[in-house]
Structures are given as C-alpha cells and as structure tokens.
Design a protein that fits this description.
Largest sheet: none
Strand content: under 5%
Shape: globular
CATH architecture: Orthogonal Bundle
Order of helices and strands: HHHHHHHHHHHH
Number of domains: 1
Radius of gyration: 16 Å
Distance between the termini: 50 Å
Mean pLDDT: 89
Oligomer: single chain
CATH class: Mainly Alpha
Length: 196
C-alpha cells in the first residue's frame, strides 16, 4: 500500500465488512464504498468487489452465508489466537495479552467481541495505535494467510476482504509461509490434559 492513511482506510473498511452483516453493517456499505474508491488497486478493488456483492445480496442470505463461512468451520475462524493457541488454556493468556496492548494504548473494547477477532484487530490498527496494530497483524499473519487460503478454497466473496487485508501487510516472510503451512497441516494446538 502506498501510505499509512491508505492502509488505515483499507483496514477500517475490512473491519466493517468482516462484522456480522446485520442492518447496521449493511447500512454502512455506501460509506465503505466511497472510502475505498480512492485506494490503490491491490486493496481497493477487492473491497469494492465485496461491497458490490453485499449490496446485491438479500440481507438474510448474506447473514446465512456469513454464518456458514465463519461460524461453522474451524479453518475459517475470525479469532486470530485460535490459529496460534487453539482451544487451550494458553489461548486465555494470549487474549489477555491482546487486551493489555489495547488498554496500554488507551483503546477500550465494548465487550461485544473478543479482542482477537480480526475485525477488532483491524479497527485497532486503523483507528487505535497504528504501530501496535501493525505488530499485532504481522504476528497474526500466518493465521490470516491460512484464513485467506481457506476462503479462496471455498469460493466465498469474503476472500476479497482478506486479499485487501493482505495487501496492507508486508509480503509474508518464508517463516510466515512455513508457519501457515504447518497450521494448515496440523491444525490449531489442542490440549490433552486430563484425558486418557
């Protein structure tokens, strides 16, 4: 992306588009479309395509598609610590650490969503602290890449939103690619404490 402001606009738009498509979310589509119109092609065009899709789809159909895409599939989770920590006790510590970063930057959550939800992280990177937001997104990049690949694999228009997010990040390093591949092969960590 060209500028920090372009990245912030793209990230805020993606955050809004990754929320559950209720009436309030759909009511902001026009605003999002206008905001992304001037972005560089790599992020702007995928966001415009998704907005076109969302504007044309009936609301109930879009909501059902969202649930099928994100809520029912582990490989397509929007909670980033799930990729790094799975359903383990360690995930609670990771969530607390993300909250601590937000609090240290003066960013208060309303409690409606977990702090590692990609939409929350993107909004923090856009409107909160851009430096810390960038570091969080880069730390979650293997999970973002895994999610992005899974969205392309299932053919959902939400893949466009993740393509735009990826365009705001540095190109994945070789280590990030290896971590994403390991995650894809093994899945998130699990905990076997107390199981025979």
């Amino acid at each position: 992306m060209t500028t920090a402001d372009d990245r912030a606009v793209a990230r805020q738009a993606a955050a809004m588009l990754l929320c559950y498509p209720d009436e309030a979310c759909l009511g902001r589509l026009g605003l999002v479309r206008r905001a992304v119109a001037g972005l560089p092609e790599a992020a702007g065009r995928p966001l415009e395509r998704f907005c076109e899709h969302a504007a044309a789809a009936p609301g109930l159909e879009l909501a059902a598609h969202y649930v099928r895409t994100f809520d029912l599939k582990r490989r397509r989770a929007l909670h980033m610590t799930y990729y790094t920590d799975g359903d383990t006790r360690r995930r609670g510590h990771a969530l607390a650490r993300v909250k601590e970063i937000y609090r240290g930057c003066g960013w208060l959550l309303d409690g409606a969503e977990l702090p590692d939800h990609l939409a929350v992280v993107l909004e923090f990177a856009a409107r909160g602290d851009r430096g810390w937001g960038e570091r969080l997104l880069v730390s979650f990049q293997p999970g973002i890449e895994l999610l992005r690949g899974a969205l392309h694999e299932c053919g959902t228009p939400y893949a466009d939103v993740l393509d735009a997010v990826a365009a705001t990040l540095p190109a994945p390093s070789e280590e990030t690619r290896r971590r994403a591949l390991r995650l894809a092969e093994a899945g998130p960590p699990t905990e076997g404490v107390g199981l025979e």
